[in-house]
Amino acid sequence: MEWLEEFKKDFYLNFIKDDRWKYIANGLGTTIKITVIAILIGLVIGITTAVIRATYAKEHTTKYGSFGQRIYQYVLSLLNFISHVYITVIRGTPTVIQLLIIYFVVFASVAVDKTFAAIIAFSINTGAYISEIVRGGIMSVDNGQFEAGRSLGFGYIRTMIYIVMPQAFKNVLPALGNEFIVLLKETSISGYIALEDLTKGADIIRSRTYDPYFPLLGAALIYLLIVSILSLGVNKLERRLRQSER
Amino acid sequence: MSDKTVNESDVIISVKNVTKEFKNVKALDNVSNDIRKGEVVAIIGPSGSGKSTFLRCLNLLEVPTSGNIYFEGKDITDPKQNINLLRQKMGMVFQQFNLFPHMTVLKNLTLAPMKLQKKPAEQAKEEAMALLKRVGLAEKAEAYPNQLSGGQKQRIAIVRALCMKPDVMLFDEPTSALDPEMVGEVLEVMKGLAEENMTMAVVTHEMGFAREVATRVVFMENGKILEENDPASFFGSPQSPRLNAFLNKVL
Hints:
The structure holds two protein chains of two kinds.
Chain A: H1 2-16, H2 21-59, H3 67-92, H4 95-106, H5 114-140, H6 143-152, H7 156-186, H8 198-209, H9 213-241
Chain B: E1 11-22, E2 25-36, E3 40-44, H1 51-58, E4 66-71, E5 74-75, H2 83-87, E6 90-93, H3 105-116, H4 121-134, H5 150-162, E7 168-172, H6 180-195, E8 199-203, H7 207-212, E9 216-221, E10 224-229, H8 231-236, H9 241-250
Parallel strand pairs in B: 3-8, 3-9, 6-7, 7-8
Antiparallel strand pairs in B: 1-2, 1-4, 4-5, 9-10
């Protein structure tokens, strides 16, 4: 029974004394806030750039009919170029560097909330990965689906919305869920800009109590728990969307 | 060509000097042809002859390299024309059916009428169900495409095109992907359409269908129309030796 007494004592020291559990609770709140908002903004960025790149791959031509088509082709090429550079740069540099650049360079002259800076950095980061996932999804939909939509009289955008995207989304749902999980864990680098997320919160406790075990293992357990719940949710959604295939 | 007295205003699709090149391969080589109201044109030829490309040019799924295509008097190759509007009047049926797998049969049928023609849901559903009944698939309304056989899928694909009330129906090898015992049910539906005077252009390998149902048969080779005639003369007394050789092989 000695170890139980020890456990109780350490638990009290790390989580109860001086309200230290608040570091964990507030940190967890920050982590979840950053992750959820970043994934939403990232979806918008990712889907937009993915559609641009897929459209470019499908529609790009150097033969122009009218003036309007010429403008359309130029704008499409430009947007494609921007998307391409964005994805290359984000995927080619470490997330920590991106976070530091956003906070210390981009927002150097304006005092912004650290949480806000982190949300911006992680949105931009995850957007690039989501873009490649979604683009793969669009490419995976058979071109016949696209032609069927067009032959009925739907324009490009409406064919995308009604016919291609729902199928693309279903195909990439596992990969999107995975990206959500990766992002959640990646926010643990927020401590680099002294933002108190779950990881940082746990580390602060460690530095106060000189006990590395409880706070760090506790934080790890919480990450694991959230990831498990997320996986469960994604699996459920996947199964529901697959119903049409049986 | 079967009826020279037909009024010029009966021409519904007019193809003028159309050439289509894919990376230096001429899929269509200066093709001209008119399709008149009520005609059932069967387009046959060896693979690679350009017959599918010809059909796909008619609703601009392939954009011709040069030449013009007029549909109901409007030049569809002119970028100023609203091709989406014109396509609503040209139904298309594909070899691979291309039903939307994420929607029920009924949603497949009502999507375009509701979104494009702004038909109320009830009306679109009623019209779709009436057409489904006609092809004998009313009980499949709530099924998903993957639960259907190839023949059923293709009949539903035909109904999907018909729900837009098109003036012309284009068929791109509609029975080529089907098991042999399912070919009949699809051809039967197409025959029914022909009897109702639907204007049809059909790329096909079904010589029986061409002979019985078509009002005109077109033979293509190397991107050119080599010969065309009414079915009786086309199959009875082919003019060119090339067509003769082709028919000997397939009949």
